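Lab notebook page, bench 4
Experiment: in silico fold of construct C2
Operator: M.H.
Input chain length: 517 residues
Purpose: comparison with the prior construct
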Amino acid sequence: MSGASPEGADVYARSALPHVYRLTKYDPADRDECGVYVGAEEAISDHGPVEASYLEAVSAFAEETGVRALSVREPQIGPGIAHFGPEPPVDGHGLVGIFPRDLTGFHDGAEVPVPVGLELVRVMLRGDGAWCRLETEGTFAVHVGWDLYVYVSSDVPCEAAVARTAALGLFAEPVDVSPYDADYDEPGEQRPADNLFWERLSWGVAARWAGLLEETHVDNGSRWHLLRDGPGAGVGSTLASVRARLAPRARLTVWPGLSTDTDAVLAALPEEGLVELVREDDEARVTGVVADVGESAELAALVSGARAATVLPMDVDECHPLFTAVLPDSDGVLRARWRTEPTRGDRDWAFLKTLRRGQVVTGTVTVIADFGVTFVDIGGFTAIINIPEVSWRSIDHPADVLTVGQEVTALILDVDRVGERVSLSLKALQEDPLPRLAGRVGEVVTGPVTRIEPFGVFVRLEERADGFEGLLPEPEPVGDATRDAARVGDRLTVRIAEVDPATRRILLARERTRATD
């Protein structure tokens, strides 16, 4: 359970609310020197007068605080929370009669009147398989913990409620903090399911590398949605229709799509352990089933009977979703406190948020592709340098001036947060040498012919392999040689006639003297 901690833990700071009480049926006089209860009371709900006393005590604190409604926070259903009571969980997680069977209305941020909140306290006292925090922001909170300990926090002292609790035969012990206070949830950055998230997801669906959305509407409970695009998409599987059905503040996990090759799905099963089989049946319903690979016959039947399926490992270290997010409220504010396991996509998203156009970064060349693109690692994210951005001078391939493993400093040209691409430029941080060449207009130079084209010949003007080249456009004799007679490698004496830094065009004029080797 998120935020769960054994009773008596002393690793917490003081609560945000100034008055915190631990409501319990256990007499403090029956604790040993370590604070452990050694009396005769059982850690189980009596489903009777003691349980009713707990509810009445919580009601007294709510009334004295002036609370009329409570918000459901971080709702959970089993497995993993049965330790809140030794009783076996009942059908519907104990929520039957409080919420519909599909748990509509039991979500983070759902507001319930105090009487419904008390029924949720009853469910948690019985350990029926559901848990949540009940809070009124900045005013009041109720947390049900291990062994029938209930923590009530308020912004007022609640002296009358303390007295009422004692009259009910319970104890209200002042404490510094509830060990289930959400302020002590695990750290981590949340990715909001904002417009950028939906654009990224839409792009992934269109590109066919994203096709399945997991909606965790309560902890330990998920709904699955197929995402399709184009004329063949079903009415209910378009991104807009799926988005409209999501529970408020749900956690979203994006996966690749299902496979219709069920034989390949079976072949990809791990050798042992639990897996989650996500399958689409003949009626286009998508469900997830947790199964033991050891029950191979049962698992094979589930896969082979599916229209499409995929198998997801249950081990966090082996699960690799594409990216995750949490739904913000309708005003765009992210109030849910859920945390998700960080994915590569989420780490990239968080890193991209720190980048901006014009920023200078340092990275390491990791790959120089045959097609001319250079890949650079900048803080764990792979950015690209297209060949025109490598140098102001003309090069045939980035490998002419770069090597794998080389550290480079570059300027960010663009940050595409939807496509998750960062474009860099090396030459933007280098001085352009062409303006210096413009100051040499009229100068006579001698250089080798590098190319011969129908419209003229190109002559290198600098004594370096990547030296600037100028075009000699005249098809007339140059000295005693014609253009047609010129060969690559011949050295010609020419005059620099024009240098245009804007178009990077260099024009040459003929000189009557031809240099010889």
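Observations: Residues 494 and 510 are 5 Å apart (CA to CA). The first strand starts at residue 19 and ends at 24.
Next step: discuss at group meeting.
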